[in-house]
Amino acid sequence: MTTKPELQTEGSFVAGLAAVGLFVVLGAVFIGVSFPAPAGFGEGAAITKSLGAALFDIAPGAIMDEGETAVPGEGFLIVFEIIDIVLVAALVGAVMLARREVAGESVTLGVETTEDEDVAVAADGGQGGEDA
To answer: Does the reported pTM lie above 0.90?
Structure first.
């Protein structure tokens, strides 16, 4: 039998006050910052082709069509790789959370079978039996 999670109220409030203080400081910094006007890309900028050229180490001029200009894509690659790492970590975390364990052993889907019985499919809607 499992128990419900409980809120821990023991401990000091110093960590909470530090978190609130950090939130206030970061909020003040973000509100007080000024950004330059967005510049955007020029007419005919081939962003996707420039990214592909930077990713596969191809000269951008080799894949650009007439009227298209290359955009420096190295800055995009850093963001692309950071997003890749975050998505892989999220996928691994989802798999670990979806895996159920009780006392260190993996738990099946809750379908009990015997040796001579066919294995039930998890997609049977919980019906089970021959008429499902």
So the answer is: no
Task: Give residues with Cβ within 8 angstroms of 63, minimum separation 6.
Answer: 49, 52, 53
Considering all CA atoms of the chain, what is the largest pairwise distance in Å, rounded to the nearest integer?
72
Query: Quick one: average pLDDT of 7-28?
Result: 87
Contact criterion met (CB below 8 Å) for 70 and 60? yes
Per-residue pLDDT, 4: 84
Whole-angstrom distance, CA of residue 37 vs CA of residue 40 = 9
Asked whether residue 23 carries a pLDDT value surpassing 70, the answer given is yes
**CA dist., res. 4 & res. 6, Å (int):** 6
Angle at 18 between CA 16 and CA 21, to 5 degrees: 110
Measured distance CA(117)–CA(72) in Å, rounded? 63
User: CA of 63: how far to CAs of 50, 75, 121, in Å?
Assistant: 9, 19, 50
pLDDT in tens, 48-62: 888 888 888 888 888
Output the pLDDT for position 5: 80
Number of H-type helices and E-type strands within the chain: 4, 2
